[in-house]
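Before the break, one more example. Copy the sequence into your notebook; we will annotate it together after we see the structure.
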Amino acid sequence: MRRRARARVEGTVQGVGFRPYVYRLARDERLGGWVRNDDRGVVLEVEGAPDAVERFLARLPREAPPLAAVERVCSRPLASSGERDFAIVESASRGAAAAPVAADTATCDACLAELRDPTDRRHRYPFINCTDCGPRFTIVRGVPYDRARTTMAGFDMCAACRAEYRDPLDRRFHAEPNACPTCGPRARLLDADGAVLAGADARDEAGAARPVDAVAAAAQALLAGAIVAVKGLGGYHLACRADDEAAVAELRARKRREDRAFALMAADEDASRALVALTRAEAVRLCARDRPIVIARRLRGARVAAAVAPGVPDLGVMLPYSPLHHLLLGDAGMTLVMTSGNVSDEPIAYRDDDALERLAGIADRFLVHDRPIETRTDDSVVRGPLVLRRSRGLVPASVALPVATERPLLACGAELKSTFCLAKADRAWVGHHIGDLKNWETLASYREGIAHFERLFAVAPTVIAHDLHPDYLSTAYALERDAAEHVAVQHHHAHLAACLAEHGETGPAVGAIFDGAGLGTDGTVWGGELLAGGLDGFERAGHLWPVRLPGGDAAAREPWRMACAWLAAAVAEPPELPSALAGEVAPERWAAVAMLVRTGTAAPETTSAGRLFDAVAALCGLRAAVTYEGQAAVELEAACALEELGAYPLPVVETAGRLVLDARATIAAIVADLRAGAGVSRVAARFHRALADATAEACTAAADRRGIDTVVLSGGVFQNRVLLERTSAQLADTGLRVLVPERLPANDGGIAFGQAAVAAAATRIAASYLPRIYG
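Here is what the structure looks like once it is written out:
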C-alpha cells in the first residue's frame, strides 16, 4: 500500500536551500515525487510507504535549513501514481506573488574556509556564496526566486558551477547566485576618474594586460591614507583607516558630516573587543547572520581616531558580512571606518555610474564590481535590545498583523527615518530604511522602494494610510495616489499601535510616547504624550507641560531656543541669557527669541519631549546648535553620571482631566544647581531620573484609572537607554507589564507599521471609521 500527499509550505522558503533540503529529506525517507517554487512559497508532492510519508511531513518544518522560516505547512492526500523518483522541477508563476523573500545573509563558515584555502578554486573570490549565505533581497527582481529573476541573470554558470548547482549532495545545489572566478562577477579598483587600476581587465601604460588583485590593491590604498568607495551588498560605503586622524577628518570634510559618528568594521569578534566593551547579548548580536552595526561603549585606549565619534562615549561596530569585506579587512589588517556612501542627507549610492558621479569629490579610489544591486539597502543598527535602523539583513522579513486587513493596504510612514509598509491579509512587509524625506533623491528612493515591494509581494493597495501632517512628503505621496481610500493616522497613535502590533496585541494599553514632534488631533505639536487605547483608537490621557516652540523647526536645529522657552515658562520672563550660552548666542538673538516666546508669534505650543532634552543640553552648555537630529539628547545621555542617585522634582499634576508632567520645576532646579556649580554629569543624571520617575508615576496612575495592566514605551526619545531602563524598572516594580519595540525601531522607522496596524483594524470596523478613532 502506497500513500501520496501534496503539501504547500509558506514562509521564507525561497533562496534558503529549502528545495534541496526537501529533496534530501524525501530521498532519506525513500519517497518519490517533486518539489518546486511558486508565487506563494514551495509546493511539493511525495509518495511512498504511509509511515514514511507521515515522517516526512512531521520532519519537514522541524528540520528546515537555518535561513528558512516556515510559517505553515498545509497538506492533503492524493491518489497514488506509482512515482518512485524525486526531483526538483521548474518553478511555476501565475503572476500573483506572495512568497516572502529572504534577507541578505553574512558569509557562512564553509564559504569562508574555501575563501581562505589556496587550493580551492574559489580562493580569494569576493563573491563566494551558497544556499546558506550571500545576497538575496538586494539582488531579487521578482519571485519565484530563480536566477533569472535576480541581478545574477547576466552571468551564465560555467560547467563546474552548473555541476554543483545540479548535485543534490552539494551545498550549492540550486543556489541561485552560485558563481566562481571563471563565470561570475568580478571586482575592479578604479581611480577617481573611473580608470581601471586593478582587476582582471587592468592594463599597464603600454596597454598590456596587467591583472592585479583589486581587493588587495584597495587595501594598500587604505593603508596609505586614501578614502575608498567600496561597493557592498546594498550600496556603497566610504572607507578609510579608523586609526588615522587625518584620513577620518578628511572624510568628514568631504562628506560634509560634521559630528555624527562613523560606523566601524572590525575583522572579527576579537578585533571588535579591542574597540568596545561587549555584553554577552551584544556579542551574540554582532555575530548574528544579519551582521548589524552594534552600538557599544568604547574602550579606553581603543585605537580609533577621535574624529570617528566626537562627543559620545560609544562606537558603532560591525563585522564583515560579504566575502569582499572579509578579504578587504584581512588584507588591511586593521579596523576600517565603513560609513554610508553618500553626501550628508542624501541616500547611499548603489548604481555604479551614480556612485562615480556623486562620490567623485569624496573618494580617491572605487572598489567596484559588476553584479548589479537591485535595491538600495543601508546597514541595520542596533543598540542594546533596540533596533535603531531596520534594513540590510532584516528586510524584507514580514511582520504579522494581529488583526488581518480585509483590503490590501499601503502605509506611507512619516518624514524622518522614513520607511513604508505594505500589507495584505495578516502579513505586513515593512520596507528598508529610506532616510529623511528632505530632497528629491531620497523621495525618488522612497517611491522606487514602494513600487518594488508592490511588484515583489503583489500588493495593489486599495487603502493608503498616512500621517496627519499635511506637509510631510510621505503624506503628499499618499494623497497623490487617489485611486484608493486614504486613512490619516495620528503620529503618536501610530507609535503606540506599532509596538502593540509587533507583540501581537491590539490593546488596550497606556503608552508613554516621547519624541520630537507629531501633529496632534487638536492641531498642536505633540511630542511628550500619554495615550490610552489600542489599534482601534485612543484618548490623550496626559502629556508634558506645553511650552512655546520659537521659530518652529528652527528650534530643533538650535536647542538654545528651547532653553529660552523653558526658562520663560519656569523661571522668569523675559528670561536671562544663561552664562553657559553667553559665548554661543548673541544677546540680541536671545532677546528676539524671548519676544517670540512672550508673544507667541512664530512660536506654536508644543509638548515635545525631544525639545525638553534639547533645552537641558543647552542649559548645561553641551549644545547650542546641532548638526544632526537628536544630537543634543545623545550628548546629554552620554554625560550622565550613572552613579548619581538624586533626581530633580518633576511633579505630575492633573489639568482638565489629563495628567501633566510639569517640568517647569525641573528646569528651575537645574538652573539653581548649575549656578551652584554642579557638574554637567550630575545635572544630566538627575534630569534623566526625574523624567523616568515622573513618566512611571503618570503611566501607573493612568493605567490604574482605566484598569489597564500594560504600558508601552516608544518614540525616538526612548532610544535613550538611561531613560528607558529606569522607566521600565520603575513600572515593573508596580506590577505593570512593559512593552517596548524589539523588531522595529522605536523612532519614526516604526511609524509605517503602526499606521498599517491601525488601518487594518479599521477595515474590520466600518468604511467610515475615522470618527470612531479621532472623533
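The longest strand covers residues 399-411. DSSP finds 23 helices and 30 strands in the chain. Try to locate both features in your own notes.
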